[in-house]
Write a structure and sequence with these properties.
The complex is a heterodimer of chains A (67) and B (137). With 67 residues, chain A is an alpha/beta fold. Chain A contains two helices and three strands, in the order αβαββ. Chain B is α+β, with helices and mostly antiparallel strands and 137 residues long. Chain B is built from six helices and six strands; from the N terminus they run ααβαββαβαββα. The chains are: A alpha/beta (67), B alpha+beta (137).
Chain lengths: 67, 137
């Protein structure tokens, strides 16, 4: 179930093994992204591109102004 | 709204081509004098005189920036509370402002320092123009 979180909650989640997905275009990801994030641009976000994610751990999806 | 912009504006770690460029946050020093709203300005003045800056910053208990006390405004009653003499809500920049951009902005306004704060208004530190210019090449 998707839940919106705040930055303060993100850091402990990452320490617990959460996976970070940046959904911005690849060029923006290449410029700068959160540590450990992988890039799946929103237009390519589907079952195939997310198949390698660990479903046993939280997945945090972010864009420029939303977590 | 939290997201990548908020993360970067806090000066938190990042990766990528721009991650290592100098920014206001990476240049910010935490050696500026701070005081509380109700603190008498006399002792603050003495601390300013021993600091590299001509001002002190007034912060809340949570570190939120409330105002600036310029050295030149503190020659009156030493018992006056900081709140009565401070300039409320001074201009600030976010930690992810590129050093080159900030240096140019300060040069254009003939300022030597910039106050850096996070998106919640908490004081991060003070960036100095000379250092920004040096790092920006």
């Amino acid at each position: 179930m998707p839940t919106r979180i705040e930055i303060d909650r993100l850091r402990p989640l990452l320490a617990e093994g959460a996976q970070l997905i940046e959904v911005l275009p690849a060029a923006e990801y290449e410029e700068q992204h959160l540590p450990g994030a992988v890039n799946i641009p929103l237009k390519r976000l589907d079952a195939a591109t997310t198949a390698s994610l660990d479903r046993g751990n939280p997945v945090v999806v972010y864009c420029w102004d939303y977590l | 709204m939290p997201g990548k912009s908020d993360w970067l504006a806090r000066g938190l770690p990042s990766e990528g081509e721009l991650a290592s460029r100098p920014t206001a946050g990476s240049c910010a020093h935490d050696d500026v004098i701070t005081c509380r709203l109700d603190e008498p300005v006399g002792p603050v003045l003495e601390r300013i005189d021993a600091s590299p800056y001509g001002f002190a910053l007034v912060v809340s208990d949570g570190g939120v920036l409330l105002g600036r006390l310029r050295r030149s405004a503190l020659d009156g009653d030493p018992q006056a509370p900081a709140e009565s003499l401070m300039e409320p809500g001074p201009s600030t920049v976010r930690a992810d402002t590129p050093a080159a951009e900030l240096a140019e902005r300060l040069r254009g306004r003939e300022l030597n320092t910039a106050i850096v704060s996070d998106p919640e208004g908490r004081l991060v530190g003070v960036a100095r123009r000379r250092e920004l210019e040096h790092l920006a090449g």
